[in-house]
Amino acid sequence: MNSIFDYVLFHFQRLYHLPSPLEISYGLDGRSRVQVTRTTSTFFERQQAKPVQTVWKEWHGSNLTLFFDESPDQPWFTQTEQGHVVVHYDLVASAFYLLSGWQEFYGPERDSFGRYPYKASQQARHRFITKPLVNYYLDILREAVALAYGQEILPRSWNGKPFATCLTHDVDFCQSAWKVAGKPALKKGNLGVFLKLAQQKLRGQDAWFNLPQVERELKQLHAKGTFFFLPEAAPYEGHPNADYDVSAPEIQNEIKRLAAAGHEIGLHGSHGTGTNARKLQAERAKLPANVKGNRFHYLRFDPVKTPALLAELNLLYDSTLGFPEHYGFRNSYCHPFRLFNFRERQMLPVWEVPLNLMDVTLHHPYYLQLPSAEVMPAVTPMLEEIIRFGGVFTLLWHNENFSDYGLEEGKSIFQEITRFLQNRQTCFLTAGEVIGLTE
């Protein structure tokens, strides 16, 4: 259980300006200023995916799920005559369970791409996908520390701003608008659209070769983006990878131009590389030597094999962990966190920049299919949670959805989301910059 406490405490210490030295014990030792009641459950000694029992308890107007407590009747914490503060619920165990991804590692459920499916998760079962429960647990612990030490505990900021935003762009397609968007238009009788796209292609200016357009949108926001390039063009088991050759001069020129402008270049690991270290390393070698982050194509993250693989390749961070089926908090946390190695029972050096919203989630026929007018009302509660806890909002918007031939009203939806963030005084950062401020 010490590794569980150490893991949770590590992340707690990166959220707030805490007293030093900080006295917190996991278990009632009778001495520490803050003592967290430890569960008597043997759940973490076994290999089952889901706790048997859950209870709900209110905290500042929010109903929170707890996984290792039997009754919600006690106060969250009380102070003894000696000034010690006793937390009566095992916030550590519940935080670890969600943050580490325990349910995914031990859960057998997988979709056709080897991904842990949203419908199998506790987030879906108890409907808290847009509530970062781990942040709530640590907020309760913060108030307990504030009471024990008699001082206000302030959150850390992002270069003086209350929360951060990572604008990320997976570059999957930049040579095939004429085909992917043009042929369906032709079948619908829209000859003009097809001819326009075909003529652009013949002139060597495919409508999706539009990274300068993406960059202009970022410039309007005074933001730098993180661009994940896909180094593999060959299909994998019938599934498409890139429609371009990353070594082609025109692509290399774009990579160099974006990097020179201050944007971050990341690796977009292709199909199958989440379980194949040698292949992922070969793809990484096709990109600039200073690439330090990855996001897997189709968000193909294997909960059992991928974390250790990322550590083996000495990648600084990954930004794959979001459910493709739904926006929100896959690990119930709105800050970056370190991945966990369940076999060794220890924290890995690799950071995860969790993915909160992907454009494809909004319109894919297997996902939400939200009309454009419903997007902001739907995602605003999630954004408000990130703002509440001073977290990081990570948005994935593919370059083709800035064009007129991708997601319907894709550019205007992006602008509406980012305008909301800008008005709330966000700090726009690349994923690498976020990790630099978190470590």
From TrEMBL:
* Gene Ontology biological process terms from the UniProt entry: carbohydrate metabolic process
Q: What is this protein called?
A: DUF7033 domain-containing protein
Q: Matching CDD domains, A to Z? A: CE4_u7 (cd10931)
Looking up Gene3D superfamilies in the UniProt record yields: Glycoside hydrolase/deacetylase
Q: Where is the DUF7033 domain?
A: 87-174
Species this protein is from: Rufibacter immobilis
